[in-house]
């Protein structure tokens, strides 16, 4: 994906449809930002450059769930940087306002690169085919032509996602250890209430978006992706002590063969 492709237009549209509509749901502990700190921030903003942040060129909104736990679902706001035609990276927040919590990161690669990965590595990655074709992954504010160009590039990509702040469970501070996240692959998996609430806030209609993308070319999902569908659940586990969240495969996803990886 070239940086000059339509996604660059999304920078100017982050304040349009979909932006500033989803603040964090609960306050975090700590004192309010002092006047002196705000002054320091303002000065740093003028003096210091932020090339990695300024390289962010697209805003995507979708949904993740914990690998092995279908009930652990959450909306994820992705702010994406295009590194080259086959590699992207995203910082993920629980909202789209300036005080949103940083939840994690996602790495996005092309189908070609995914097919070069070792078998065990592939188990960490999920496909984007269903997310795009179903309309559950959106680029708020992009014109239809730009949206289709962007999503046509993403539909056949694969993502590896780690969440470091489980804001659906830890409402105040980031607790525990990172969790591997997955993307939905079929109808009936995503909580319809989550989807309806997202559509209401962003002023969009997922079903209409789905229809607009019906002729988008999507390849069959590459072998090795979405390992959770075959009961291969991977989550980190502490060598000793507590700290990880429970991740048990739910009945809807079938019986799991727990593959616990020690950090």
TrEMBL record:
Residues 241-263 are annotated as: Disordered. It holds the Pfam family DUF1264. The keyword Cell division does not apply. It comes from the Bacteria. Keywords: Signal. PROSITE patterns: PROKAR_LIPOPROTEIN (PS51257). The keyword Repeat does not apply. InterPro entries: OBAP-like. Residues 1-21 form the signal peptide. This is OBAP family protein. It comes from Citrobacter sedlakii.
């Amino acid at each position: 994906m070239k940086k000059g492709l339509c996604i660059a237009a999304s920078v100017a549209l982050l304040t349009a449809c979909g932006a500033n509509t989803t603040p964090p749901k609960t306050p975090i502990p700590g004192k309010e930002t002092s006047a002196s700190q705000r002054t320091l921030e303002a000065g740093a903003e003028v003096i210091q450059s932020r090339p990695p942040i300024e390289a962010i060129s697209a805003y995507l909104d979708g949904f993740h769930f914990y690998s092995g736990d279908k009930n652990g679902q959450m909306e994820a706001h992705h702010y994406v940087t295009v590194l080259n035609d086959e590699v992207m990276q995203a910082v993920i927040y629980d909202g789209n306002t300036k005080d949103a919590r940083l939840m994690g990161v996602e790495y996005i690669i092309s189908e070609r690169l995914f097919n070069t990965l070792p078998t065990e590595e592939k188990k960490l990655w999920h496909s984007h085919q269903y997310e795009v074709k179903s309309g559950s992954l959106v680029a708020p504010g992009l014109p239809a032509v730009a949206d289709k160009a962007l999503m046509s590039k993403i539909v056949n990509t694969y993502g590896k996602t780690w969440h470091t702040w489980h804001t659906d469970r830890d409402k105040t501070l980031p607790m525990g250890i990172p969790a591997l996240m997955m993307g939905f692959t079929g109808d009936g998996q995503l909580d319809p209430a989550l989807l309806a609430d997202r559509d209401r806030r962003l002023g969009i209609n997922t079903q209409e978006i789905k229809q607009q993308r019906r002729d988008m070319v999507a390849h069959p999902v590459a072998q090795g992706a979405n390992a959770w569908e075959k009961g291969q659940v991977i989550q980190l586990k502490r060598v000793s002590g507590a700290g990880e969240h429970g991740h048990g495969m739910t009945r809807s996803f079938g019986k799991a063969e727990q593959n616990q990886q020690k950090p």
